[in-house]
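Format notes (please read before filing issues)

Several people have asked whether sequences and structure tokens are stored in separate files. They are not. Every record keeps both together, in the order shown below: the sequence lines, then the token lines. Line labels are part of the format and must not be stripped during preprocessing.
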Amino acid sequence: MIGKVEAGFAMRLIFNLLLVPLLEHKFLNSNALVHSFHVHTAWTLVNLRAWNNTLGGVLPLGASKNKKNRKTYGRNTNASDEEDVEEVDTAISEESLDILALDFKKSLEAAKEKLEADLMKISATRATPGLVDTIEIELDSKTTRQLRHLAHVVTLDNNVLKVEPIQKEHLTPIFCTLTMELANYKVQLENGFILVNIPSQGAKARQAFGTLGLCKKKCRVLRQDAMNKLRKKKGGLSEDMLFRQEVCKGRDVELQKRIEEIFKRVAAALDAACTAKIKSLAP
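Then the structure lines:
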């Protein structure tokens, strides 16, 4: 619907553009008519601007109101300004800190389980003929026989086996088969016999300590990552909220202590697992 003001401007425009020049044309010459037309055209432009401002003046108010409504949408309009600021500038929640600590603990537990699995792979086997006696030796594409039927196996010391074929032509197939079957051992081809070297207990202990060292290094990296995540959370707080977080509530300080306690507890469990493995390797 067009209001009274808009209707008045419309009538004035029609009068200025059409009726006034026609009325004056009866009394004025052509030059005067041109001059009158220019004057009325300028006056018409002024009226157009005034009409545009009148019609458009309401629109910014509506847009501002909508913008204000968009800002307050989903918020409690009855809340005070202090409550609004409190909602934006929040502290680190207890839930987020608990999740961070739980993730760190799970990562350390996974590292501990991997260490235990790796330690299980370190064999406590000693050099005895029974290690190789039952290995099937492929003599040709159709014939296989157990090693004890093809060679004499004796123990030279705690870590070395000597395999001497009964027939010299079986030396090469026996060596090839033992090399593939005993991938974790050192198999040497000598003049007319084969030596199988089993890692010593000292070497196995060093292997266990090396595995422990790698696991501890990974755990330290996990601890550093947890600390970095905590610092990142603190970086999003204002100075006032950071003061309340550290001094008044002490939540992040408590989490740092929890991270250190979890790390120390898991590190002690890792040391205990490695020590137990080394004891099991002792003769």
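For reference, the curators noted about this record: Residues 57-89 have pLDDT under 50 and may be disordered. Residues 201-235 form the longest helix (35 residues).
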